[in-house]
Design brief:
alpha/beta; Nucleotidyltransferase, domain 5; 2 domains; five-stranded mixed β-sheet; 26% strand; globular
Length: 149
């Protein structure tokens, strides 16, 4: 799963019982790794949010690693066999917050992001193969993304 070429990763806080202190909890983390191509999930429970667990789990990974903007993932964008990619849902949130600051430009970006979501919905509803989805994205989504950057 970790070497299939496309992996999504995220961490979530979770209260963990402390075996040394009866009835007490501490902050732990569920690190979730999702391989959409394999339709597989891997959960890694850690006591910390630091990068050590990531390094252990992802040491042999290759391909695309999709994450939010958490700084622990940045190191993997510098590895030769990994391309770090962001999450459009996380990026979208910043433009929602920007509506009060620059409404017209934020609305423009949000409208373009909705077009991207519509393309993904069409690909999913039509059950495009990975190859057809890739070509479809190049034809339809790439021009929008290039215009936004």
């Amino acid at each position: 799963m970790l070497t299939q070429g496309y992996l999504q990763a995220d961490e979530s806080p979770v209260k963990v019982l402390d075996p040394l202190k009866r009835g007490k909890t501490h902050q732990g983390y569920h690190w979730v790794y999702h391989s959409p191509l394999e339709k597989a999930l891997f959960f890694d429970c850690r006591y910390s949010r630091n990068r050590a667990g990531l390094e252990e789990v992802l040491k042999d990974s290759k391909g695309y690693l999709q994450t939010d903007g958490y700084s622990a993932y940045k190191k993997f964008g510098h590895q030769k066999d990994i391309t770090l990619v962001g999450c459009m849902a996380h990026a979208r949130r910043y433009f929602e917050k920007a509506l009060d600051n620059d409404k017209s430009r934020a609305e423009h970006v949000l409208t373009e992001i909705q077009k991207l979501y519509a393309f993904e919905r069409i690909a999913k509803e039509n059950e495009y193969s990975h190859e057809k989805r890739h070509a479809y994205r190049l034809d339809n989504a790439q021009p929008i993304l290039e215009e936004l950057i």
